[in-house]
Amino acid sequence: MRKILLLLVLFPAISLANPPMPDEPPCGEMHRFNHHGMEGENGHLPRFLQGIDLTDTQQTEIKALMKSMHDEFKAKHEETKKIHQEIRNLSFSDDYTDAKAEALNEKANAMHKELGLKKSRLNNSIYKLLNNDQKQKLKTNLTQSEGRFF
């Protein structure tokens, strides 16, 4: 009876003790999934281009465009995070005023607008690299997906 109880207690603990295999990263270092389709540094193409047959030249040009914009997007994203942290800090401080909060929110909105415009320009640059058949296929995919890619 003691052996059965001991097994019942130890079995879940043993099954949860799952050390990483030699070729796997430790649990804290797992790669994050980028669901926005902007994977500039690791060379992936945007999701909205899935199912479109691109030439090697087009793929390299698109990856180069994305890589050139990646650092800029990253810097702007960090700046946006700082503004949002300032808003949080102001919200829970004694020196809160509506004017300060409004100024920070306007700054955050301007940054968001700027990032959206840059993303639109990047997407348009990618679109201009496609031939007419690819553009038609992209439009068909976008109407079928109803905005899932963006």
SSE blueprint and pairings:
Elements: H1 2-16, H2 56-91, H3 98-128, H4 132-145
Helix pairs in contact: 2-3
Mind explaining what this structure looks like?
- α2 packs antiparallel against α3.
- Helices cover 64% and strands 0% of the residues.
- Residues 33-42 have low confidence and may be disordered.
- The protein has one domain: Four Helix Bundle (Hemerythrin (Met), subunit A), CATH 1.20.120.
- The chain contains four helices and no strands.
- It has helices at 2-16, 56-91, 98-128, 132-145.
- The protein is mainly alpha-helical.
Summarize the structure.
With 150 residues, the protein is mainly α. It has a single domain (36-145), classed as Up-down Bundle (Four Helix Bundle (Hemerythrin (Met), subunit A)).
Descriptive key words:
150 residues; mainly alpha; Four Helix Bundle (Hemerythrin (Met), subunit A); 4 helices
- Sheet-strand content, in percent, reads under 5%
CATH class: Mainly Alpha
Poorly predicted segments: 33-42
Radius of gyration: 24 Å
Mean pLDDT: 82
Number of strands: 0
Measured between the Cα atoms of the first and last residue, the distance is 59 Å
